[in-house]
Amino acid sequence: MANFETRFARMSRRAAITGAAMATMALAACGAGGSKGAAEGDMGLGAAEGAKVTVVEYASVTCPHCAVWQAKTWPAFKAKYVDTNKVRYIFRELPTPPVDAATAGFLVARCAGPDKYFDVIHQLMATQQEMLTSSPRDWLLRTAQAAGLSEQQFNDCVTDKEAVAAMEKRVQFAQAQGVTGTPAFYVNDTQVITPGGEGASLADLSTAIDAELAK
Question: What InterPro entries would the database entry show (predicted)?
């Protein structure tokens, strides 16, 4: 375990440094900018690219507020807008503390393949407490194995230089867009904020989405 942690810490240092400034502000969804244009590495569901309405979520698998939104709001949002292809839903990765664990979680999701990406993301959010009760590595490895990766594939995945560099570019893109916290939501480039909430509420998202659909 020590060898893995040393290797991963060394490989992910650049991504961790890049994300550190935003990570300290990740407890609130606030800020400006966000969803303008497509970003390399975007993961999407629902309507095809070029849809009338695009909803972008910036989130982290280690963000407790993101996990609450995922548990309480995502199922209804998905049923109303994603499964019906009314919107293009884009998920963008923004690692928050512990940044190394979040980065590794995103790498595992990508190594699992496009068809399992969201399953891994949702599983990590649903089991965040395991990161605290066991260890980040054990939590991540269990999730990777459940997605069909061997322990060796897991080790190779989270220490892949090119993958870490690509993650760093996604973090830099978020910074350039002015995103300062997770979860953050944008409907056609306009941020939707629910004061005091765990991310944007379904009601507030619906108001913004339905207005765009009606245009």
Answer: TAT_signal, Thioredoxin-like_fold, Thioredoxin-like_sf, Thioredoxin_domain
* Full residue range of the structural domain in which residue 177 is found: 2-213
Chain centroid to Cα 122, Å, comes to 9
For position 147, which CATH number holds?
3.40.30.10
The domain total for the chain is 1
**pLDDT score, position 35:** 53
For residue 168, pLDDT beyond 80? yes
Cα separation, 176 vs 58, whole angstroms: 13
Q: Which residue has the tokens 């690509």?
A: 166
Which band of pLDDT confidence, cut at 50, 70 and 90, is reported for residue 4? very low
* Structural tokens at position 28: 């609130």
pLDDT at 11: 44
